[in-house]
Amino acid sequence: MILTAAVPCLLQRQKPPRRNRNFPEGDANKGALKKQIRRHLNAAMKLGTLDELEEALRMCERYDVQPDGEYFKAIRKVEYLRIKEGLRNAVRRRHIGTLEKAIQTARASPFARQLASAISAADKLRTQLVQYKVHRHAPPDLEQSTVSEIRSFKAPPRSVVTVMTAVHRLLGYKYREVLTWQRIQTLMGQSRDDGLISRVKRFDPSVPGLRAAEHVDQLLKSTSYDEVLMASNGTARFYVWASNALDKVYGELGKGKRKKKKKK
């Protein structure tokens, strides 16, 4: 009776082992999927973006793909792309603190040489922003050496001509007197009381009329501090001076401060 009772129990169909939901067809399916993941990782290494590489690495970890040389190369490339993206975002934000942090991270990384050009561009922008902050909150340091530097341009960038035209218009020169760069160079070459620095120090906001002020306004709005600074540090100082002087002219004319060009 005991044996008879035990037979049905022994003959009962045993339940199959629980299947791995990631590999419903067992080891064969598991091996095929791992090969597919490796191919995906290799493709991401060649042409993939940072997001695609990160996703490929997550797949490797999720399905327990054995790390190999390509896997570790992918990790290194992700680190490189993250630092590069950090520099790009910092430049886009144009924030001094963010730029300094991104530059420091890049310089301390193993990819400093590979990212040399990106680091240099970010550092140049950081310097410009620092100088802009200083220039905007302190009187521009205008010296004869600055004038000589600007005057030495044989074929200056458009922004340099624009700013120096605006400066001379504010100092009372007529439009026809500053039509060409050669004429502006001649005016900058004058010395003593007629020199540019002396005239700037004696600037009288009541001298330029409304037409001159509107002309200067158009000139300054046609460029930007960043553009001028990239062309010439000395001219950037005159840009700040001209901008502040124009506000004084409008105040003298009873129009108050002009509307500044909105930053994009």
Describe the structure.
It is elongated and about 85 Å long. The termini are far apart. Residues 1-20 and 23-28 have low confidence and may be disordered. 25% of the residues are buried. It has helices at 2-11, 27-47, 50-62, 69-93, 96-108, 116-136, 144-151, 158-170, 181-188, 196-201, 210-221, 225-231, 233-253. It is mainly α and 264 residues long.
Mean pLDDT: 81
The ordered H/E elements are HHHHHHHHHHHHH
Cα Rg: 34 Å
Tell me the structural class: mainly alpha
The multimeric state of the shown protein is single chain
- The parts where pLDDT drops under 50 for at least 5 residues are 1-20, 23-28
Q: Tell me the fraction of residues in β-strands, as a range.
A: under 5%
Number of strand elements: 0
Distance between the termini: 94 Å
Number of helices: 13
Roughly how much helix do the residues carry, as a percent range?
55-70%
**Morphology:** elongated
The profile of the biggest β sheet is:
none
Give the arrangement of secondary structure elements.
Layout: H1 2-11, H2 27-47, H3 50-62, H4 69-93, H5 96-108, H6 116-136, H7 144-151, H8 158-170, H9 181-188, H10 196-201, H11 210-221, H12 225-231, H13 233-253
Helix pairs in contact: 2-3, 2-4, 3-4, 4-5, 4-6, 5-6, 8-11, 8-13, 11-13, 12-13
Short description:
This protein has 13 helices and no strands. Helix 2 packs antiparallel against helix 3 and helix 8 runs parallel beside helix 13.
